[in-house]
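re: ur question from the group chat, yeah i did fold both. here u go
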Amino acid sequence: MSKKAQHASPSGIGFSLGKPRLAIPATVWKLLVILMLGLLAWIGAERYLAPDLAAVAALAVVCLGFWASAVMPEYWTALAFFLVSMITQIAPPETVFSGFETSTFWLLFAGLVLGAAIKFTELDAQVARLLMRLPFRSYGGTLAGIVAASVVLAFLVPSSIGRIMILLPVVSALAAELGFETRSNGRTGLLVAACFATFAPAFTILPANAPNMILVGMSEAQYGLRFSYFDYLLLHFPVLGLVKSGVIVALVLLFFPDRMPARRDLASAPDTPSPCRRS
């Protein structure tokens, strides 16, 4: 310890002005705060709500805190939620696992499986090489093509997360094939355009995402209203679909400006390995 960092206390014992050795990690502080909030939720629910809801409120607050703060991996928190719910019997099993009975969950799960399969089989790199042969002459034209492909995919795959999991590996490989660097505005812009165009214009297509299906189900069950696919599309798609797609392209060009890198000659070297392939 240097003389500058050490000073004499009134008792003659030296102490350091540097970083304390017994510093509490940030993870411990987060864990303590989350548990304290869970205790407060238990007390508040037991006092102002039904006593049976106290455990439910505490478990919900603790799980939400773990997911928001990333104190532990998300799947651990989910497994702990089901385990605690079953051990404490705060709800019947058919209520706890009711989410697995909905078609929306399996649509999302299927999208995750398709995205993982596309990445594992390197189909994303192959599709990107095929897309490279399209006349992408400008950065704006590439953005417009990605947005158009995302909107078309909304008519075929009825899940926003599923479409994102399918499209993002392909767009990422396409950005690498076009020559955009990892942290460049061009690569970021292509990915942002794919994400927003996948779900924003899709709200104009009735079965394209879960919120639309929830709206249809609740309207029919509570008010007896039924929506027609074509009428819903004709009412919303011209403005909220087409115009919103153009706005997405314009905003990406505004916030992530870039230019198209020098185009590669794929015809002269068709067997050149893709930079997206794993070694």
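okk and heres the other one u asked abt
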Amino acid sequence: MSVEEDQLEIKFRLNDGSDIGPKKFSCATRVSSLKEDIIAQWPKDKGNAPRTLKDIKLISGGRILENNRTVGECKNPLYDIPGGVTTMHVLVQPPPTQKERKKVHSDDPKQNKCGCVIL
């Protein structure tokens, strides 16, 4: 296998339609390394910048990619054209703040009641 065959050219599509890349990555590169690269190259003028790997989900070919997988393991013959650029969609979802967590896990007794009506 040549060096060219062992690499995949990837661009990362952000939620506003702009892209980071394309850039070539070895098939042995882990998804977590791709996420680190995204954080490092995130455009400074865009809001909602990810801070950690957990803030980012990468989607390729309709699948969410796991951090411990390699780029080679994530290749999909239906979507990845040899010699072409693979587009991975970037979903940024920062973890909820303390205030948001309190709303979800509220101890409000009204939220914990369930009512049924039988006619």
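fwiw on the second one: Residues 7-96 form a domain with the Ubiquitin-like (UB roll) fold (CATH 3.10.20.90). The mean pLDDT is 80. idk if thats what u expected
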